[in-house]
Design a protein that fits this description.
single chain, alpha/beta, 6-stranded mixed sheet, 12 strands, about 25% helix
Amino acid sequence: MRIVHLSDLHLTSPEHGAIAHMWTKRWTGYASWRRNRRWQHRREVLDRLASAVQSERPDRIVITGDLTQIGLPEEIAAAHAWLQTLAPPERVCLVPGNHDLYAHDSWPTLRREWADYLHLTGDDSGARRAAPYPIVRELDGVAMVGVNSALPTPILCAGGRLGASQRQRLEQSLAALHARGLLCCLLIHHPPLPAISSWRKALSDAGALATILTRHAPALVLHGHLHRNKAYAIGATRIFATASASSAMAQHPASYRVFDCERDPRGWRIAMTLKQADPDGTAFATTHHESWLQPPPVGG
């Protein structure tokens, strides 16, 4: 099974809609986009990356949030239109980022517009952003487990939280999936461990999540938010952050990761390939490759 991970697309423009939100956090977010982000994140770079991703012929495309800039309805609709050009919903696993749930009115619009790509059903609660999660999708012995760490935050803050109920459901899901012998891959926007990012951008209950990861050890955790490529581990779990898919920055060029997962008599053989844009953003080349044997999950 082949999985491609991309994150932090920042593909939309808030140019017109932000004017109606002066003196709110959205206005400060618009100012940040106007001053810096519109130069750092380029749609043409993202479109080239999308073509490269499609050429990989993935079974699943994982997107760990931040498709928009400030979560405006116009942005959410535009992001959905772009997703339709990337791949059909059945091949995409999407979890939202803090820029997607930028304000309290973002979730109802996002839930409605992205329901097919978020894989939410009509029975899920539309009022509470954590209620439908985790979302579990299975294919060829691999379970994608998506959680929602995004929520509206005060000005100058970009942190996240799962909350006790979502963490409890996550722990139950991982235990059940491992009991069936499935390879688990957790999808989250924010870094899942403490001290990975500054306090204002961190997951507030990362310590509690780390305990769950230690106890149930999913094979992979894929996240974004850092806008850079990073790899680390906790126990038997390997954690990967992937740089912004639309980044035009030389220091952290647009990137995506390819994971090939194959059953092995001793567990799973996993290969990870990191691909980054060249200096002019026209092609993507392999910059790192590694493979390892993932033992069967406890209880599997």
